[in-house]
Amino acid sequence: MKLAMIGLGKMGGNMAQRLLGDGHQVVAFDVNEKARAELGGKGATAADSLEAVVKLLEPPRVVWLMLPAGPITHDAIESFAGLLQSGDVIVDGGNSNYKEFVTIAERLAPTGIHIVDAGVSGGVWGLTEGYCLMVGGAPEAVKIVEPAFLTLAPKDGYAHVGPLGAGHYVKMVHNGIEYGLMQAYAEGFDLMRAATEFDLDLHEIASIWRYGSVVRSWLLELTERALAENASLEGIRGWVDDTGEGRWTVTEAVDRAVPAPVITTSLYARFSSRQPDSYQAKLLAAMRNQFGGHALHPEGGA
Q1: Angstrom distance (rounded) from CA 3 to CA 181
Q2: Which position among 129, 178, 221, 234 bears the catalytic label?
Q3: Which are the contacts of 45, defined by CB distance < 8 A and separation ≥ 6?
Q4: Interval 171-182: pLDDT, tens
Q5: Is 106 one of the annotated active-site residues of the chain?
Q6: 284 pLDDT exceeds 90?
């Protein structure tokens, strides 16, 4: 099939290459001219504007957005809403908030332009390993894009999970679970590192856990790779960002009265990582000093 990929970063660029490799025709656009030219050199048709993108497609046109969630994606959808026609399809493949997405989709409904939400997981390895795709939208719209879904996903890695918003909702929860898994691995390896009397080889342990262990996973394989390159993690600052999905997952758990203590704690752990000089910790130390006379450690001390 022929489709446009809008946003040629680490995800969109690799996805476009995977589509090209399976014989699809890709119209490529990015605000970065170099990114457009690079993908053009790999077989895509580079477009220098959104108007040019639409002119290079044939009905039903398919435009896939791989852009940062929020205003950038919203603006792109609004722009294409004024350029596309009834029966065309916009695929939002970013980590958009499902509530915001549904609101935009409902506003687009009178135009007859379909909108599909595709939760995409696979990271930088997706080009070779494939992308897990969690897709939401009307069946007739999903069917139009399905040839691309089947190319991008590995065998059994794609599903139409429900109506509009379902794809983003499932991807949100997926990322919340990811937070919890990552935190558990981090805590476990830190605990083994603290057992200095055993002189444990953390890379070796990560390596053997990949085979036969009940805790084996793709995240563990990536942990093993990281430890193989830098077992002491020297030069890496312990600052862990979050991109919103963990927060949304926790909010959903509260709103739906579903207990999610592991995901919630893992989100707070990320916040803690950004406070090398925590006011909370200082206050705890001060309270211990007040009620128990416990020693205070001066700043800059051991």
Answers
A1: 35
A2: 178
A3: 25, 26, 27, 28, 56
A4: 999 999 999 999
A5: no
A6: no
Q: What percent of the chain has pLDDT over 90?
A: 86
Q: What does the angle CA 65 – CA 67 – CA 73 come to, to the nearest 5 degrees?
A: 80
- Of 120-124, 249-253, 254-258, the one with minimum mean pLDDT is 120-124
Q: What's the pLDDT tens digit per position in 177-216? A: 999 999 999 999 999 999 999 999 999 999 999 999 999 9
**Looking at residue 294, what DSSP letter applies?**
P
Residue found by looking up tokens 């558990």 in the block? 184
Closest CA to 62 of 179, 149, 145: 145
Distance CA 263, CA 64 (A): 30
Give the separation between CA 9 and CA 19, rounded to whole angstroms: 15
Q: Residue 153, Cβ neighbours under 10 Å: how many?
A: 21
* Contact call for residues 40 and 29 (beta carbons, < 8 A): no
Annotated active-site residue in 171, 224, 245, 252: 171
The DSSP code for 295 is: P
| pLDDT at 38 exceeding the cut of 60 | yes
Strands 2-6 and 158-162: unpaired
The beta strand positions in the chain, using DSSP E, are 2-6, 25-29, 45-46, 62-65, 89-92, 114-121, 132-136, 158-162
Residue 178 annotated to the active site? yes
The CA distance from 95 to 123, in Å, is: 12
What DSSP line would sit under 146-196, residue for residue?
HHHHHHHSPTT-EEEEESTTHHHHHHHHHHHHHHHHHHHHHHHHHHHHH-G
Judged on CB neighbours under 10 Å (0-12, 13-18, 19+), 149 is: buried
Helix, strand, or coil (residue 127): helix
